[in-house]
Inverse folding.
């Protein structure tokens, strides 16, 4: 077993806290529990959760593990951006590896790179035919493995109950 396999096995074993939080009526508790649960596997330095405002083609931050750098309530316009097309409209996971990928995909790339973040996994959360938003994991390591992507997708879908409808 690789180190990553061991971390995934531990997360599955220790899933009671996150599954208990899923019944919470407090969206922030749901998002924070998922962030804490996924941290040993993904080792994200920043986790954010955004609601998709399809009318304005924008995302609005509902949760941030770093509320000083990325406060809840902040929003980003995504109209006409390749990232928005890929993640929000086509509903596909985006994986960005390395500073060049960060620069190419995000207007706030200076802030992201300034925090020492070098890779990202953006997971669209889709229920039925509606994209509710995204869960975003940003890591200091430049390389993302397939197991990270699969785990990020699972973790993101644990947050469905926290999104407004």
């Amino acid at each position: 077993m690789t180190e990553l396999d061991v971390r995934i096995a531990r997360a599955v074993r220790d899933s009671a806290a996150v599954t208990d939080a899923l019944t919470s009526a407090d969206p922030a508790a749901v998002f924070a529990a998922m962030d804490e649960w996924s941290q040993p596997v993904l080792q994200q330095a920043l986790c954010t959760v955004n609601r998709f405002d399809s009318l304005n083609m924008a995302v609005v931050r509902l949760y941030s593990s770093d509320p000083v750098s990325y406060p809840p309530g902040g929003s980003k316009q995504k109209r006409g951006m390749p990232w928005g097309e890929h993640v929000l409209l086509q509903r596909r996971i985006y994986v960005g590896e390395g500073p060049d990928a960060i620069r190419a995909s995000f207007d706030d790339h200076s802030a992201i790179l300034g925090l020492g973040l070098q890779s990202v996994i953006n997971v669209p959360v889709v229920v039925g035919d509606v994209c509710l938003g995204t869960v975003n994991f940003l890591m200091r390591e430049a390389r993302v493995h397939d197991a990270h992507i699969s785990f990020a997708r699972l973790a993101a879908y644990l947050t469905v109950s926290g999104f407004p409808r």
Residues 33 and 81 are 31 Å apart (CA to CA).
